[in-house]
Amino acid sequence: MLPKALRLLSVRLGLLAVFGGATVAQIASADSPLTWPGWTDLPRWLLTAPNPWLLVTSVLTAFGGVASVVQLFASRPATGSEIGQDGRKTRADVALLSQKISEESLTSHSRHLELLSALQSARVGVTAEDIRAGRISDEVRAELIAALGLSIEAQTQATAEQARAFAETAADLAQSSAADDRSIAAQIVEGYPLEATDRLIGSSNFHATNAERVRMAARLYTPFSTTKAIAAYTDALELDPTHSGTWAELARLYHYRGSREDARRCAERAAELAADPWNIMIAEGLLGDVAQAEGQLDGAASHYRRAHDLARTRLNVFPGDKSGRHELSNYLQKLGQVSTATGNLSAAARYFKASVRITSDLSAAQPNDPAWQRELSVSHNWLGDALWDAGRRFEAQKEYEAALIIRQALARGRDSNWLAQRDLSVSCVKMGDVLSAGGQFSEAHEHYKAALAIRERLVAADPDNFEHRRDLARSHSRLRAIAIDLEHIEEARQHSYSELSISRDLAKEDPGNIRWRADLARAHENLAGIQLSDGKLDSALHNLAESLEIREALAKIDPTDLKFKHALWKVHELRGESFAQARDFAKARNEYMQGYALVHNLVLSDPANAQWQGDFATAVDRLGEMAMVVGDFDGAQKYFTDSLARREQLFAADSSEISLLQDLFISHAKLAQLCEINGNIVDAVARYRRAREIIESAISKAPDYPKLKGLLSKVNAVILRLGGS
Q: What superfamily does domain 615-725 belong to in CATH?
């Protein structure tokens, strides 16, 4: 497209041509001779027909020409399109500036990384003096790589691959015959990696024509400064533009930064230049990452399968290649993630199981390498998630337990290693979730408290870390829920206020962060739930109004994101409950209808989603309650029957969930209540007895759940009142 100035000029010249052509035409049609008249005859000549038209067109031509020139250079209001384009550019510039500021902050923080202490806690017998003196054996090198890699992964946001590349590069320098290189490696171990890398670039051994030395610097920069790493890899490409691996590393860094177009461009270039199966495999994996980030799941799966097949073929030739086996495990996990996203949970479980087998063998072969142990724990958790999503909760629990045992060992004696501590807190939460779903609330409560204690320590050690603070807020959220199940209402209330306080602070500090805003909405909803149980309807409605405003704004950001729509359903559900308690049934039904419409569309878009099916059954149930309020008992019967049928299907798919047993109990109890209202006492007693059987079954699975015993007592009293036993 032509630049704006040229487009304007072309329009103005066009106007000049039109007016000028009109003038020439009028001159050609004039009755006067072609020679110009004298000055005294000019007025009479101009008034002779059709010459007056010539005067008009001449004036218009002059005016049009002057206006064209003036408008070409004059300022004018921006169009909506231009404002949008400039706004997007401004936001992109601000995002880049924010990225650079964040990295500079990380750079400053890196000066104080206690890498040497981390190495000592890992019981690696190496010091900076040993490195400077050249006393690094191959055995010590292996220990140094393992401990340094894990320390970098714990102290930065680097991936496991980036941390290992950093560690191996530092080890290469530590074993160099050049004293300058060894001095640089010693400075890294002393806790000054960025300064050491700057020295590497400025050292006498750093030749302007040596692309590999530039790549070494890029690998050392990567955990601490994406900007410096990208600049170094770009410099390396100027020296060696056909190096596939450099293009691949640039693709990784751009992908990490969120620059998808740059990431795709670099990954495609890496694939074009790849001359061997290994580099082709790496490029295919990166293309899969970009496709997955863009939501192109079929394309991502295709790339991951090609990478997987190349890794498998390589292992057939080199069966002992650890790096190849690790890559194979990596692509199995990625295929499992894509399968999970597309709802193919059985395939996801198969992929993750295969990954667990590989990482288990790798960690067993290197028992002193914590990185492989951590990798195994991650594999167990991925498999656990897939099994639980598939309704195989007991199998999932075994995987979570395996991950927990590994992480407890990795965290023991490493209180300063935030990654190991955070990993342990995540495993505690997963165990709490799976135990809570099975009705083992006391055990779940203990795991949640253990996670909370870890996260409180992490926040105290690094109060500016957003992720640690968010983890802490989510721990309060889970403890609020479990405290309600255990009828510890005061504890639940305190956790709700703590969650809201943390979430509000995070949202204030970074108002553009979607996750923080969604967390704040959830915190308002959780507190509203407590206030409803306390009978504080005005306070509950106030918090729900705050939540609704946030949820609606988030839903407008991406109308295709179904998670935002599901979250909106929950707000309408709680608002309906609030109005129902206030006996404003018209408003309550309006809220329930809005929630029903939202979750109904969700179910239509993904009928296999068990959570949405359960929520839809609840939405149908609520409409049945509103029908009963207005005396529409036939309508209520239809709603309650529909809800029961959906819940029975969900229970048939997973009979271990306590919440599903509670829902079944509610459906039978409501249908029994309708029978009683209609005077059908025999059927009412039969329904109540069925409800009692269900709640007794739930109690046998969750004996420490007080609410179940209360429900059993109530249903027994109703049966006795109706003359049953």
A: Tetratricopeptide repeat domain (1.25.40.10)
Percent composition of the chain: helix, strand, coil (DSSP 3-state, to 5): 80, 0, 20
Residues 6+ apart with CB under 8 A from 449: 479
Q: Answer yes or no: are the C-beta atoms of 332 and 352 closer than 8 Å.
A: yes
The 10 Å Cβ neighbour count of residue 277 is 15
SS3 of residue 547 by DSSP: helix
Averaged over 636-662, what is the pLDDT?
90
pLDDT digits (tens, 9 = 90+) for 563-619: 888 899 999 999 999 999 999 999 999 999 999 999 999 999 888 788 889 999 999
Q: Please give the Cα distance from 143 to 344 (Å, whole number).
A: 41
pLDDT the model gives residue 110: 40
Spatial contact of 300 and 278, defined as CB atoms under 8 Å apart:
no
Q: Tell me, what DSSP letter sits at residue 464? A: T
- Measured CA to CA in angstroms, residue 214 lies from 209, 217, 221, 242, 286 at distances of 9, 5, 11, 15, 22
CA proximity to 154, closest of 143, 172, 166, 142: 166
Assess contact for 403 and 427: CB atoms under 8 A: yes
Greatest C-alpha distance within the chain: 127
Pick the most confident of 188-192, 291-295, 461-465, 681-685. 681-685
Say how far apart CA 60 and CA 18 lie, in whole Å.
11
Rounded to whole angstroms, the Cα distance separating 103 from 221 reads: 11
The pair of structure tokens assigned to 204 is: 């006498």
| pLDDT-based confidence at residue 723 (cuts at 50, 70, 90) | confident
Which residue type, as a one-letter code, is found at position 320? G
Give the integer Cα–Cα distance in Å for 432 and 496: 18
Residue 511 has pLDDT above 80, yes or no: yes
Quick one: which of 79, 166, 175 has its CA closest to 131? Answer: 175
What span, in angstroms and rounded, lies between the C-alpha atoms of 255 and 270? 14
**φ/ψ (deg, to 5) at 597:** -60, -40
Q: Where are the domains of the chain?
A: 4-70, 114-241, 615-725
Give mean pLDDT, residues 499-522. 92
Does the global pTM surpass 0.90? no
For residue 212, give the amino acid letter: E
- Tell me which amino acid residue 98 is: S
Residue among 106, 145, 147, 193 at smallest CA distance from 414: 147
Please return the burial class of 66, using the count of CB atoms within 10 Å of its CB with bins 0-12, 13-18 and 19+: exposed
Neighbours of 29 (CB within 10 A): 11
Three-class secondary structure assignment of 617-642: HHHHHHHHHHHHHCCCHHHHHHHHHH
Pick from 545, 150, 175: nearest CA to 371: 150
CB atoms within 10 A of CB 463: 9
Do the beta carbons of residue 421 and residue 454 sit within 8 Å? yes
Structure tokens at 62: 């002059």
H helices of 412-561, in order, are: 418-437, 441-461, 466-485, 489-509, 514-533, 537-557
Length reported for the chain? 725
Three-class SS state of 21? helix
For range 330-357, the mean pLDDT: 92
User: Does the pLDDT of residue 478 top 60, yes or no?
Assistant: yes
